[in-house]
Amino acid sequence: MKKALLIVDVQKDFCPGGSLAVPNGDEVVKPLNNLAVHALLYGWSLFASRDWHPLVTKHFSNYGGIWPIHCVQNTRGAEFHYGLYMNAAGTFYKTEIVSKGVQPDEDGYSAFDGNCDQLEKPLLEVLNLQGITEIYIGGLATDYCVRASALDAVKYGFKTYLLLDACRAVNLKPGDGEKAVEEMKKAGVIITTTGEVMSGKV
After folding, report:
1. pTM: predicted TM-score of the whole model, two decimal places
2. Is 167 a catalytic residue?
3. Does residue 155 have an active-site annotation?
């Protein structure tokens, strides 16, 4: 039974001051850092997904999508939040970076749509090669990329945990975050917190 922590899209453009800021998005950094330390001590694998869009993509409102320009490849907005321990390309915690939404015709909501940069393989393939059976997910945003990643994790047979204190929602419509959590729960995602995980309650 091998575990992985998946940090979803904690990038500057999704945090306060970014071009597509999630309300209080930077509040996920502290609980994710705490769990990353726990994960390292207990031999988990660590993954961090990122939006890595080209400047011209159907994902952006300029080209038929619904979102303002954000997380364009090799821009400051696409960088991970400076407070994350795995910043600077993830070298400190040996975090595997998963880039998604890379092609002009991709939205790339789910981390499972992406490839692991260093290993040059899809995330699902890498998880299976490492023998991962349980995935703990937190990041941004609850109602979009976290939701899509968690639903895919369940679909692919992983025991999946949503770290509720380590997520924040966009809430384009009021209550979108709560609806997403309920959808994930119905799909089989276990709703928990970083504190419960670290204390051994789950």
Report:
1. 0.95
2. no
3. no
